[in-house]
Amino acid sequence: MGDLLIRNISDALKHDIAAAADRTGHSLSEKAKELLRRGLVVENEVKAVGGQSAYDALRATFGADEGAGDEFAAIMDEIEAERKKDFGRPVDLG
């Protein structure tokens, strides 16, 4: 196995890693390796999305079809038309 030297880590970051290591009973080195592994996993997952916007990624994840936006717009237009029909109607105060 090789060694890795990381220079110029802020004292705050080193303290946070050390505190996390203490909480889990690991050494500073073990905790740093774990955090690096997790960071690489997250980075690889983000790259897998392939430059999509968050909106497009969520639509793909939840299986929204292409016509859903048009259908939603039509429904909202119907709701707005029904809402506007209520204007001018006398109010029953009795």
Structure overview:
The chain has 94 residues and is mainly α. It has 2 domains: 9-51; 54-86. The protein has 4 helices and no strands. The protein has helices spanning 11-24, 28-49, 54-61, 68-85. Helix 1 packs across helix 2. It is elongated.
Order of helices and strands: HHHH
Shape: elongated
Q: Which percent bin holds the helix content?
A: 55-70%
| Unreliable sequence segments | none
Q: How many helical elements?
A: 4
Instruction: Evaluate the radius of gyration.
Output: 27 Å
Strand portion, in percent?
under 5%
Tell me the domain tally.
2
Oligomer: single chain
What descriptors fit this protein?
94 residues; mainly alpha; elongated
SSE layout and pairings?
Elements: H1 11-24, H2 28-49, H3 54-61, H4 68-85
Short summary:
By secondary structure, the protein is an all-alpha fold. The chain contains 4 helices and no strands.
